[in-house]
Amino acid sequence: MSNTYKSAGVDKEEGYKTVDKIKTAVSETHNANVLNNLGSFGAFYEIAGYKNPVLVSGTDGVGTKLKVALDSKKYDSIGVDCFAMCANDIICHGAKPLFFLDYLACGKLDSEIAAEIVMGMVKACKDNNCALIGGETAEMPGMYKPGDYDVAGFCVGIVEKDQIIDGSNIKKGCKIIALPSSGFHSNGFSLVRKIFPDFNEEFEGKPLYETLLEPTRLYYQPIHKILEEIDVCGIAHITGGGIIENIPRIIPENLCATIEVSKIKIPSVMLELEKRGNIDRMEMYGTFNMGVGMVVVTDEEHAEKVLNLIEDAYEIGEINEGAEKIKLI
Which segments constitute the PurM-like C-terminal domain (predicted)? Predict the structure, then answer.
């Protein structure tokens, strides 16, 4: 009997099935700027209507949150997470997401699982007016065990050069406003899984995995609602490293973001994790978003407008002089 690619562990037919399951839904994310369909060697996206456009790109993955999804056999939120981790980064610079590409690797491809993951990306792209224009599915026996998957993505956005937000306009007296997270998002799950080894245990009346797999919040709509009304000085996406590491990334030299931790609305599941794992509070703030998914820094005169525009936004601090860039009080 001669050797075949399938005998080596790669089933091309399952890949074709995956494409068949997703191609119609993926095409629904396309607009007039997408010049070709799935199947080409490269994806074409036309840019028009900008005076001095700057492309802003970001790439990220879902991390070990995937383990929770795979063990719980619940895959619909993972694609949302993958898109959100990329798109939420570029939004920090005032960019509008244009298009997204994904990379899905596994030991043995199951078209049902792969399609469910991609359909989450489709949903997220639609919510962000972004086109899913391509991707790669890699079946890699020997590298991944059967049942294992890894998911990553790449997002490109656009912003006029004179509208780029980079934190350089932040000054003393600016207010720091929090946009709540939807939970852990996609960070810190190696520690989460260590403290919560049983994803099926009951937490607040439902299986814990439902809370852990809450999709990462998409911030395009609220952020651009704000940007249509006022000039924003800085935006920070609170991901790995938490508040402690991410807010300083946008703070200019000799200024300090003073955060009043008593104002932060910490999700109950994070308080339970902290208690059960006997984790120091500063370790929590340096690992998890602690309920703050995005931070907007704006002039004091505009702070009230932001709070009125975004129903669940709330103030957590202000910018003062200082060398440390962030201080939790």
Answer: 171-323
C-alpha dist (Å) from residue 151 to 22, 38, 266: 16, 19, 28
Give residue-wise pLDDT tens across range 149-185: 999 999 999 999 999 999 999 999 999 999 999 999 9
Select the CATH number that applies to the domain covering 174-328 from these four: 3.40.50.2000, 3.40.50.360, 3.90.650.10, 3.40.50.450.
3.90.650.10
DSSP state of 61: E
4-160 under CATH 3.30.1330.10, yes or no: yes
Contacts within 8 Å (CB) and 24+ apart, 303-307: 303/175, 303/177, 305/229, 305/230, 306/177, 306/226, 306/230, 307/177
Q: What is the pLDDT of residues 78-119, one digit of tens each?
A: 999 999 999 999 999 999 999 999 999 999 999 999 999 999
Instruction: Give this prediction's pTM.
Output: 0.93
Kindly give the pairing relationship between strand 255-259 and strand 206-207. Answer: unpaired
Q: Angle CA(82)–CA(15)–CA(80) in degrees, nearest 5? A: 15
Q: Please answer whether residues 289 and 267 qualify as being in contact, where contact means their C-beta atoms are separated by less than 8 angstroms.
A: no
